[in-house]
Amino acid sequence: MQLHHFHGGLKLDEHKAESTARPLLTMGVPKYLYVPLSQHIGAQTECVVEAGDRIAKGQRIGRAKDYICANVHAPTSGWIRGIVEHPVPHPSGLSAPCIKIETDGRDRWGDDRLEPWRDWRERDPRSLRERVRDAGIVGMGGAAFPTAVKLNPRPGKRIHTLVVNGAECEPYITCDDLLMRTHPEAILEGARIVSHMVGAERVLFAVEDNKPEALRALTDAVASGEHDFIRIVSIPSVYPTGGERQLIKVLTGREVPSAGLPADLGMVCHNTGTLKAIREAVVAGQPLISRIVTVTGPGVREPRNVEALIGTPFADLVAAAGGYRPDVDRLVMGGPMMGFAVGDDAVPIIKGTNCLLATRPQDTPQPGPVMPCIRCGECTRVCPANLLPQQMYWFAKSKDFDTIQDYGLFDCIECGCCAQVCPSNIPLVQYYRFAKQEIWGREKERQKADLARERFEFRQQRQEREEREKAERLARKKAALAKKDSAPTEKKAAIEDAIERARARKTAQPAEERSAQDRERADG
Amino acid sequence: MRFRTRTSPHMVPGHSVGGLMRQVLYALIPGTLAMAWFFGWGVLVNVVLSVLFAVMFEALMVTLRRRPVGVTLGDSSAVLAGWLFALAIPPLAPVWVLLVGTGFAIVVAKPLYGGLGYNPFNPAMVGYVVVLVSFPRELSLWPSPEGLADASFTLWQTLQTTLTGRLPEGMDWDAITRATPMDMMREALVSGQTVHEVTRSPVFGSFSQTEWEWAGNLFLLGGLWLLYRRVITWHIPVSMLLSLATIAGVFWVIDPDQFASPAFHVFSGAAIIGAFFIATDPVSAATTPLGRILFGIGIGILTYIIRTWGGYPDGVAFAVLLMNMVAPTLDHYTRPRIFGHSGDGRG
Amino acid sequence: MLNAILAITGLALAFGLILGYSAQRFRVEGDPIADQVNNLLPQTQCGQCSYAGCRPYAEAIAAGEADINRCPPGGEATVLALADLLGRDPKPLEVEEKEKAVAVIDEQTCIGCTLCIQACPVDAIVGAAKQMHTVVEPECTGCELCVEPCPVDCIAMVPLERGLQDWRWSQPAPSPIEQPRRARRKATEERRESA
Amino acid sequence: MARLVVRDVVITTLLLGLFAAIGTGVVAWVHSGTEARIIDNRLQMTRARVTQVLEGVDYDNDPVADHHRLSDERLGGEDLPVWIARRGTEVVGVAVSAIAPDGYSGDIHLLVGIDRTGTVRGVRITQHRETPGLGDDIEVERSDWVHDFRGRSLGDPPIERWRVRRDGGVFDQFTGATVTPRAVVRAVRNALLYFEQHSEELLALPPPEEDEVLTIDPAVPEIPDPATPTEPLPGAAPPGDTLP
Amino acid sequence: MITSGYGDIIREGLWNNNPGLVQLLGLCPLLAISGTVVNALGLGLATIATLVISNTLVSLLREHVRPEIRIPVYVLIIASAVTAIELVMNAWFHGLFLVLGIFIPLIVTNCAIIGRAEAFASRNSVPRAAVDGLAMGVGFTGVLVAIGALREIVGQGSLLDNAHLLFGEWGRDLRIEIFPQEHGFLLALLPPGAFLAMGLLIAVKNLIDARLEGRAAPSATTEPTAPAPSQS
Amino acid sequence: MEYALILVSTILVNNFVLVKFLGLCPFMGVSRKVETATGMGLATTFVLTLSAVSSYVINEYLLTPLGLEYLRTIAFILVIAAVVQFTEMVVHKTSPLLYNVLGIFLPLITTNCAVLGVALLNVQEAHGFVESALYGFGAAIGFSIVLILFSAIRERIAAADVPVPFRGSAIAMITAGLMSLGFMGFSGLLRL
Ligand SMILES: Cc1cc2nc3c(=O)[nH]c(=O)nc-3n(C[C@H](O)[C@H](O)[C@H](O)COP(=O)(O)O)c2cc1C
Ligand SMILES: Cc1cc2nc3c(=O)[nH]c(=O)nc-3n(C[C@H](O)[C@H](O)[C@H](O)COP(=O)(O)O)c2cc1C
Ligand SMILES: Cc1cc2nc3c(=O)[nH]c(=O)nc-3n(C[C@H](O)[C@H](O)[C@H](O)COP(=O)(O)O)c2cc1C
Ligand SMILES: Cc1cc2nc3c(=O)[nH]c(=O)nc-3n(C[C@H](O)[C@H](O)[C@H](O)CO)c2cc1C
Ligand code: SF4
Ligand code: SF4
Ligand code: SF4
Ligand code: SF4
Ligand code: FES
Fold first, then answer.
1. Residue B284 included in any domain
2. Where do the domains of chain F lie?
3. How far apart are CA A131 and CA A279, in angstroms?
């Protein structure tokens, strides 16, 4: 197959062998699980259970209340111990509402378990999509975008190709690799389900050439089955070839248009993990409640892949991988290029957690002070989006948000290549994230200002009209009668009266409040 | 357990600014030594003094701004600027020329703009041009290698000359200086000789050309090493030398008597060191790939124009400054096509 | 001398004719600059700029009578945008930028006097006479104009809540070599404390 | 479109006309009061220059009013003015303008004063663009170098030694700048050669008519201002006559 | 700028709103004619005269000018004044006239003059306008002379060279030599020197302003930690 | 060839702004943004060429025949003011788009010394009609080029960490000085 190139990219030290040396470990059920309500891109999930509820494994505990949203299911059976603010894996380090589950260790499925559909070929795509949605599946390649939305073809867009993203281009991460080695059939079946759903005629399954075992397993699986429209493609390992747009370029030579989606080219791209999850949801009726996570880095004793329930604290995963080495000072969720460091290992894993990376100071030495950009152009050389990171940095720094957009800020995929090669150690990606969010924020404010202006102008017109009418009325009245005007005083008196009443109520209020609090205490 | 939070990427950092600058310094060494071999101690004295002054000025400015001195000096860019400046001026230039030049290079052209990374103009070239227009006499006194050899200038004598601005007893500037090849060519053409006559004249062939070429070759070597080390990219040197050779070639073909050959233009004067070490200053050059090519072409053409028709014998410094001026505009109009966009790079 | 006067006067007469004619022939109404300025203002209509709302302030700016740094709700961003539009130097804001807030009416205390409704420039308060009033949160611009008129002080400005969804990446701190030494020392101390 | 209000147009026009009339009137009045002095001033400049290069020549006319134009390759240009100094009607000296075409950065204009015997009485550079700080030592304001020519003639030094020292002549070059002095020396020598060849014609030039002397003659050639040190400086361009 | 006292007007012209340093108007003569103190002073005096005359006249006529010919009328007034001054200089200060060259007629387009006519004289009474003209003129001349002095000292080591052009023959004695001309720093006399000197002067003014302010509010003297988002 | 020389001379060698010091106020004033600088350049080019031509005509056919050379300044500035005002009114009415680009700059051009300077220099150098027009055009192009280059540099400096006293116009002046230093390289070019 004719492969193509994208501009830039980096060859990085892979560090994959560390974690693939050990077999996959399925973790037990921890005592408490913290399942965040917001694990995906889009609106926060609405909690449908209450403290004290008894729940079964796979029971829906969070309901998608919006189109771009995903259900959340109980990873195991137990009791709800409240909706608590708990640290979540997020670059802010903030806490967010999580469903706290005390597990019972029985891991018991409930009665309302989804029905396994072994006959998915006979089902129509719509109901399959509904199943994906019910199962709360989100993209497991990193972005955690609700998969059902992606699988819902937009009107007029016909999907002909499913791209399976098995690139796993970031260093250290091997969860997809392991999945491909151990469950090639499941992934391929997932691919067939998705093809069926979107009507794709071919599947391009891309795997970086640094995963020979996965490649062999997949090729064998393809050869043994009747997957003639599935093509396993070995692609050169260059970071970030696993980025959706870069991958499509490498495979087909076509570029996803700037503000567009792969669907504009008739393609859809999915991570191997996502496909496996789809397969489980359809064929086994199992919602997305666990995933494989690579626990690795020079800061853990026995780097390996573990399969863990959503909501398991990071600390437990690390313990399963032999615990920390001394001096560990950084724990990253995701890969070293795009992941973010968390401040606390009590945070739970979520659907999008593919890797935990622990490092010590000596592994990622202090990069030296941030220096000014010397415009060396290294970042331009490696930027896979062919942007001018140094210029964008310049404009982000001076908060020139119009110009930075003109320079393609929103084409930046935040891959981190530029920051990696920058000799001045500038946290470039953070500048871009900052700029993007600032622009979104301002856009929101602008919309609000426009609304306010409309309302203000409307009000002014109304007041003018009223003024006019009043003047007319007054003139008419004056002409008709030139007599008493007691009305105003009457009105004033009424107001005074009301004020008096309010005051009385206000002084009475503290007492009321006190009693209300008492009542609460009694309830609790 | 709590951890430090830092933004991605979380990898071992690649290189550093200071490292980059030091590689350029290493690449300058062979050419500098060659120059010192031909032109005497003066070259080394200049380099040492200029670097000293440059570092001093930098430290002074940073201190005045109450900024950390160590970090700024650690990036070695002042050392590099001082060194490059020193290579541009004649070996026996008096000390005040060095002071004024490095002063302008380091004080006016750099910290006033905020220091490393912000200066729109090449500091070393600002320094050089300032002394060139201010002290044209001192700047045109290039010792001839043979003149120095006759007088066997010692290090001590060199220092004396540099520090006092006067030659030691019994020596005469007219005796030990000679026009550079560039100067000679210009002078001869001005007074109506042909290129042929100039290059044939025994003086021209026998001494200056070869020495200058040797130094040039060693700078070329250093430049190639920088290319190999990826400290610089090919765009600027290649486009600059090519355009210089091309335009020189065109005129040379038209009238070989009035216009010097492309080889002469490329290998004389500051073309080589300019192409690899000066025009490539990342801070003041264009930063987009196409912009860099245009930047190089501009320098090549302007160098030729100023050399051939201008009032100053060598145009590289001016050409670099002039193109520094154009660089931001070039960057503005030569953005690469962004992934997923059609047409130019506008988002 | 007469020649001179005649020649130049003639010239002036000719130009006067042309200009006088074209002044009428090519007259244009309206002030597009004021519109552009108005578009950049936040439309909070709070009057903190000392004008009766955003539009009058915009007109004053366009006429060159007012400085561009007097709109606290707009904050630094607005000053920069205005400076950009008008080619003036950005200046620091005259007053401190305030935290974004919305008005909340204590429904227990509200007596339904409608005074706040009359004060609200964007009709963000709903309610009828003698009935409890409420602020429609997404429409409130936080201008505080309703606070003053309320006879029973039942309106409070409540800062907008900021959760995970509203969290934003901050601009990275400037490089240490771009900071005076004193500031740097403070920053390191802070980091040490927080660690 | 608004209707034309003719009255407004007329008022506008008249108003502008009125201002113009008043303004011009004032200026014209000032002009009439200063005119004579201005003309005199202009001639005065030229007079001073000519006097300088004819130092030591004993004449009693006003050379400024007594000028002709010469064209010759040796002088380096066309229609170059020459001023004549006389005692009585006899020509005792000439101030020849010449151009050295081979300066380092273009032409160098000079004025060479030569007496009857063909001896140089003075040389002044009137316009040049040589490198400031290097070639501009030819200016009398900056160095005494041009005084070297005083008293020289074609025989002193012998013609083959009318060169700069580096080329085996008697005149100093400047350290670091040989081209400029070389050009000037050559130009002065050529001026002398020209004088030698044409001395008869020159010495026989007729005096001007008596009453022409002080009328305004736009053809009176002016000597450009001595070039200010730097070519690009505004004002270095010959100020010439923005006003007559 | 509703009504300010004469003191304010003068302070504005000389320092706070100096036409050269703050408004950045009249830059051309400021840079071109500041090679020596004498040139600077000559042009400065001419500018002061023009400013006072034009401000007075414009203020006098401010009621009678219609908008469509406002600029032509102001320009006419200024041009007449300048031409008269030019003729006088040509007659009595011929040497200086030659040196200043084209920049005398260009006083007409000195933006500072028309700027004052528009911004101040056309809105204020005659005496106030005249004082403003004087203050602005003196402020402008001050800057001109300051740059002139700087460039002359650095560039040719002297002060008040060629003073005879302005003061007549006795002026020759005014010349002060600080060091011999050949040690001069030529750059100061060249065009770049003019720009650099001007930049330096503006910076010095900023520094002094900051100091003054610092004395008023003693805390705000250190630089902000981050570069201001956008200045210039 | 001679015409080409005039252009090269006015654009590079004797650049009006950096070498001749004319038109500095707009050079400093409207150079914060590349877009506005471009607009100013366009407007100036138009007005400068037009006024160079018209002042040539006035000088040749009105002032010189009448012996009124001393009134040049008045006559020229009158022409310029009228041309500018007229252009502004026409553009404002006929092309709001163009007015948006050029409009705010037009009044500034009256007081751009380069315009009057060109008119006066044309007379001083005894240029003919075509030469006058070219001289004006070249001067304007030279002005526009450096203005645009300068504005692009200033956009960069806007984000630079300039020492406080130098922020704003001081560093802009210094930048202009360094630009003019670069232009010194053209001195002596073409022996012009
Ligand atoms: C804000 C946002 C909106 C999206 N909207 C859609 C959509 O409407 N339809 C769709 O198929 N995919 C949509 N996507 C998914 C993207 O196509 C992409 O597959 C997903 O972001 C994961 O890709 P990544 O990890 O390379 O970023 C959206 C993604 C984001 C971040
Ligand atoms: C720089 C970058 C690198 C990525 N690398 C991978 C990768 O190696 N493997 C992967 O599955 N997804 C990767 N992604 C995410 C993909 O772009 C895309 O979102 C994903 O394949 C879509 O599948 P999903 O919706 O099933 O997650 C990367 C995204 C970016 C921006
Ligand atoms: C910037 C510069 C300007 C120069 N200007 C002049 C000049 O105006 N006149 C001149 O004769 N030589 C000038 N020269 C020197 C010539 O290049 C040449 O070196 C000199 O004329 C040869 O003289 P020499 O043989 O005495 O060294 C200049 C040199 C430089 C570097
Ligand atoms: C390849 C390379 C070339 C450089 N060339 C120059 C130079 O010509 N002049 C100079 O002052 N600094 C040069 N520098 C150093 C540094 O970039 C310069 O001082 C900055 O302009 C300071 O902000 C160079 C640096 C590198 C990496
Ligand atoms: S790699 Fe860093 S220093 Fe180099 S241009 Fe990019 S941002 Fe600037
Ligand atoms: S993070 Fe953005 S700018 Fe940087 S290399 Fe990746 S795509 Fe380019
Ligand atoms: S301060 Fe701002 S938001 Fe408030 S009225 Fe004025 S312009 Fe509008
Ligand atoms: S509710 Fe109050 S604060 Fe909100 S917009 Fe209306 S008046 Fe302003
Ligand atoms: S003084 Fe020349 S443009 Fe203002």
1. no
2. 39-182
3. 11
Q: Tell me which residue of E91, E78, E76, E107 sits closest to D31, measured CA to CA.
A: E91
What does the alpha-carbon distance between residue B23 and residue B260 come to, in Å, rounded to a whole number? Answer: 34
Q: Which of C172, C177, C195 sits opposite B68 (nearest CB)?
A: C177
Contacts of A512 (CB under 8 A, 6+ apart): none
Neighboring chain D residues of E60 at a CB cutoff of 8 Å? none
Say yes or no: A255 contacts chain F, CB-CB below 8 A: no
Phi, psi of D78 (to 5 degrees): -105, 150
Buried b or exposed e, range A290-313, using 16+ CB within 10 angstroms? bbbbbbbbbbbeebbbbebbbbbb
Is A141 close to ligand 2, i.e. is its CB under 6 Å away? yes
pLDDT tens for each residue of E143-179 = 999 999 999 999 888 888 877 777 777 777 778 888 8
Asked whether C82 lines ligand 7 (CB < 6 A), one says no
Is ligand 3 within 6 A of the CB of residue D164? no
CB contacts of B71 in chain C (<8 Å) are: 176-177
> What DSSP string runs through F71-87?
GHHHHHHHHHHHHHHHH
Tell me which residue has its CA closest to atom 25 in ligand 3: D178
Between CA C165 and CA A437 the distance in angstroms is 11
In this structure, of A507-511, C101-105, F78-82, the range with the lowest mean pLDDT score is A507-511
Expressed in angstroms, the distance from the first to the final Cα of chain A is 67
Domains and CATH numbers, chain A: 17-359 (3.40.50.11540), 376-512 (no CATH)
| Span A90-125, pLDDT tens digits | 888 888 999 999 999 888 888 888 889 998 989 999
The full set of domain ranges for chain E reads 7-211
Count of C-beta atoms within a 10 Å radius of residue B200: 11
Q: Is residue B334 part of a domain?
A: no
Domain that holds residue B34: 16-178
pLDDT tens, residue order, chain F (192 aa): 788 888 888 888 889 999 888 888 889 888 888 888 888 888 889 889 999 999 999 999 988 888 888 888 888 988 888 888 887 777 777 766 666 656 556 777 777 888 888 999 998 888 899 999 999 999 999 999 999 999 999 988 888 888 888 988 899 999 999 999 999 888 777 654
CB contact under 8 A, C43 and A434: no
The β-bridge relationship of strands A78-87 and A54-55 is antiparallel
For chain C, the residues whose C-beta falls within 8 A of a C-beta of chain E are 12, 15-16, 19-20, 22-23, 76, 80, 83, 89-90, 173-174, 178-180, 182-183
- CB < 8 Å to C103, chain A: none
Q: Cβ C25–D4 below 8 Å, yes or no?
A: yes
Q: Is the CB–ligand 5 distance for residue A161 below 6 Å? A: no
CATH architecture of C32-86: Orthogonal Bundle (1.10)
Q: Compute the nearest-CA separation of B134 from chain E (Å).
A: 5
Asked if D16 lies within 8 A of C15 by C-beta distance, the reply is: yes
pLDDT in tens, A43-98: 889 999 999 999 999 999 999 988 899 999 999 999 999 999 999 998 888 889 99
Across the interface, whether the CB atoms of D104 and B134 are under 8 A apart is answered no
Which pLDDT tens digit goes with each residue over E106-145? 888 887 888 788 778 888 888 899 999 999 999 999 999 9
Q: Hey, where are the domains in chain C? A: 32-86, 101-159
Q: Which residues of F touch E190 (CB under 8 A)?
A: 184
Cα separation, C39 vs A446, in Å, equals 9
Q: How many domains does chain B have?
A: 1
Provide the number of structural domains found in chain D: 1
Tell me: pLDDT of A18 over 80: yes
Cα F86 from Cα F92, distance rounded (Å): 10
- Predicted confidence (pLDDT) at residue E216 exceeds the cutoff of 80: no
B208 has a pLDDT exceeding 80: no
The mean per-residue pLDDT over the stretch D223-244 comes to: 34
The CATH architecture annotation of domain C101-159 reads 2-Layer Sandwich (3.30)
